[in-house]
C-alpha cells in the first residue's frame, strides 16, 4: 500500500504455511518518521534470516546508493563492502559460481549499519531512508520477479545456517514467544534540491 496513506497499522504475521506467528504494528507520521514493533506470538521458535521492510521504488529509480559504517577504515573503490557507493540493478544478475564482473551482486547485497540509503532516478528523485546512529539498519536493493525495484530496510539480516552457526551465534536471531523486535527510521520521497 502507498506509504503516504499509512498512519497506523496492526496486522498478523504469517509463516509460509499461512499460520499466524506474530503481530506487527506500524506508525508513520506522514512526515517521514516510521516506527514498528513485531511481537512473536507462537510457541514455536522462529529462526529469522531477514526482518524488515520493503519499499517500492519508482520504475526509473534504478540507482541504489548508501553510506554506512564499515568494519575497516578503507575499502577498494569497487569493493562490495565499501562504506559509500552506488549500484545499478544490472549488477544483481549472474551466477554466484561465475563472477563475470567486479560489481556483481552489488545492488542486491546487504549494506550493513547504514547511515542512509536511497533509490533514485538520474534526476535525483525517488525514495530514501535515514537512520539514527544508535539504530542503524541494513539495506539492499531488490529486483522483483516482475522487474519492480524496491529498497529493502532490515533490522536483522542473518546468514544462512551452516557448520559455523554454533560458533558465531551473535549473527543469528531466534525469536521465542513474547519476544519483540522494534525500530524507527525516517523514510520518504526524495526530490532534487
Provide keyphrases for this structure.
193 residues; mainly beta; Beta-galactosidase, Chain A, domain 5; eleven-stranded antiparallel beta sheet; two-stranded antiparallel ribbon; 46% strand; globular
What would you note in describing this structure?
The protein contains no helices and 13 strands. It is an all-beta fold and about 190 residues long. It has a single domain, classed as Beta-galactosidase, Chain A, domain 5 (Distorted Sandwich), CATH 2.70.98. The strands form 2 sheets. Strands 1, 2, 3, 5, 6, 7, 8, 9, 10, 11 and 13 form an 11-stranded antiparallel sheet that branches. Strands 4-12 form a two-stranded antiparallel ribbon. A hairpin with a 5-residue loop joins β1 and β2.
